[in-house]
């Protein structure tokens, strides 16, 4: 295993970790939306700042609110899962040397 494969493996793991952390952030954002959190709490502000740009764009493109329920976090989680698999598969293909 050469340096290139080790480097690509490290990139693979970092990308996997970033997607996993963002999934946890989206899930936490969805969970806190069930209660009435203090909007000035730093954790709540972080969760809103990290997810609102993506969720707001999705809400403009796809009207995903039915009966007072917002399904945009679910669609975002599905999209993240698909995007993660595509990117990781591409990185794995690079690691095997099949460009």
User: Helix and strand succession?
Assistant: HHEEH
State the secondary-structure class: mainly alpha
Oligomeric grouping of the chains: single chain
* Average pLDDT: 90
Number of strands: 2
Q: What's the arrangement of strands in the largest beta sheet? A: 1-2
Distance between the termini: 17 Å
How much of the sequence is in beta strands? under 5%
Domain module count: 1
Shape: elongated
> What are the segments in which pLDDT stays under 50 over at least 5 consecutive residues?
none
Your description of this structure?
76% of the residues lie in helices and 4% in strands. Helix 1 packs across helix 2. Strands 1-2 form a two-stranded antiparallel sheet. The chain starts with a helix and ends with a helix. The protein has one domain. With 99 residues, the chain is mainly alpha-helical. The model has no long low-confidence stretch (mean pLDDT 90).
